[in-house]
Amino acid sequence: MKMELQRKTAFIKGFKKTVQALIKQTQELYLSDEIPWVVGYSGGKDSTAALQLVWCAISELPPEKRTKSIYVISTDTLVENPIVALWVEHSLEAMEKAAAEQNMPLSSHRLIPQVQDRFWVNLIGRGYPAPRPKFRWCTNRLKINPSNHFINNVIRETGQVILVLGTRKAESSVRAANMKKHEKTSTREKLATNASLPNSWIYTPLADWTNDDVWMYITQTKNPWGYDNKSLLSMYQGATADGECPLVVDTSTPSCGDSRFGCYVCTMVEQDKSMQAMIQNDEEKEWMLPLMELRNQGLDIKEDRKHRDFRRMSGALKLFSGRLVHGPYKQVYREKLLEYLLQAQESVQQNGPPEVKNLELIASQDLEEIRRIWVMEKHEIEDNLPKIYERVMGQPFPGKRLEDNQVFQPEDIALLKEICQQEGDEEEVHFRLIRELLHIEQQHRTMARRAGLYDAVDSALERNAFTNAQEAEEFALRRDYARAKARGEDDTTNLPLFA
């Protein structure tokens, strides 16, 4: 027992020396040039440790030497785990206040995606199917674009930038290999090159740390912006299935470092284990159940083919292994998803704690953009979004009536649908075609020169040329078979209809 205690004491002393060496290294890098720093902060343990290390290092410098700007940026995808999102938001507010009080050259910035890039605008508005390995459309739009936009603005003003990240080689073998690769190609000591952003360098002070190193540092060192790191430890503990998150100093004891916080809508993983564990470990967090159900039932990528159009977004027909590759979500399903989302928002606001009483799962800006896409781009002249909103929320939709759509009354739409109804028209193609043609003509009616009218009409006719998926698939098979023959290809086994 005594030997074990001595070993742990020696380990802690050695780790403190490591931290002091990193603080000195960070100070030297900060003073070595005039290039501003941008620190990536997610609110998790790694980014907290990296920022804390930088803050402590700079705060030890004389005030007259703290001349170089440090920007702390955090990207809120607007579909984050609400508990984590609130934690980060309050952290950034605390940093801004503490930086002013401590005379630190640091500012905090909460970044959000542009309206057209937001998750619900693309999924419910445009009908993009939920992200999957071969169509991961979310990461760039929600996370990379906002941060890159901010960083590029700093580069335009100052010429260069140094990114400070909490990435570690111990996170994965892929991460380790990537970090080593960029370290080798760098022309500056302690900094790695950034392949995706020219005129930027990457500093990773925690590159060689383990999970346990990170936990030891943030729990043994006072948080410089006044936040309680033990609360962060508790949050990770609550997001771990067995509810345990021990502080360890050797590899024989498991840690909670594998807890992963992220978007509650993420379909790149089988389950949102962190949210599931939070609900399981604390009955006061059961208000998040509608979010988990929305993700598990509404965004089931294994069973969503039946909810998707047999045409691509452009109306094109594409085959894979002799089957049509289905495209965006159909109108009925998009409307159903919006209803589920608004119901989840109502439930969270009614049953959640005071801090989420005004939480918006979907912002009014997003609703306006979805409505515009449905009516103006998809020609869904029924304008159903305000009706869905009023039905679920029990109050009128706050947005303005679309002027371009005033000519179409509900009774007109009902009559048009009745006239166009034909046997075997499962997709209501005839109704959709006539509806689109009428709306295209309306959109061009006030133009002196109706530029683009004929192209729009041609596209509408081509997009709605097939009554059902089987008819479209047979056409696509014949088309691809004919193209293969014309190219002189003998192998047409991927076209089973003619094999």
Fold topology:
Layout: H1 2-31, E1 37-40, H2 45-59, E2 70-75, H3 82-101, E3 106-111, H4 119-126, H5 138-158, E4 161-164, H6 173-185, E5 192-193, E6 200-203, H7 211-220, H8 229-238, H9 273-281, H10 289-298, E7 319-320, E8 323-324, H11 331-351, H12 364-377, H13 385-393, H14 410-420, H15 429-444, H16 453-463, H17 469-486
Parallel strand pairs: 1-2, 1-4, 2-3, 4-6
Antiparallel strand pairs: 5-6, 7-8
**Spatial strand arrangement across the major sheet:** 3-2-1-4-6-5
Number of helices: 17
Q: Unreliable stretches, pLDDT < 50, 5 or more residues? A: 242-259
Number of DSSP-assigned strands: 8
Major sheet description: 6 strands, mixed
Radius of gyration computed on alpha carbons = 28 Å
- Beta fraction of the residues? 5-15%
Residue-averaged pLDDT: 85
Reported CATH architecture of the domain at 2-238: 3-Layer(aba) Sandwich
Q: Determine the fraction of residues in helical runs and give it as a percent range.
A: 40-55%
Q: What sequence of helices (H) and strands (E) makes up the elements?
A: HEHEHEHHEHEEHHHHEEHHHHHHH
CATH top level label of the domain at 2-238: Alpha Beta
The fourth-level CATH homologous superfamily of the domain at 2-238 is HUPs
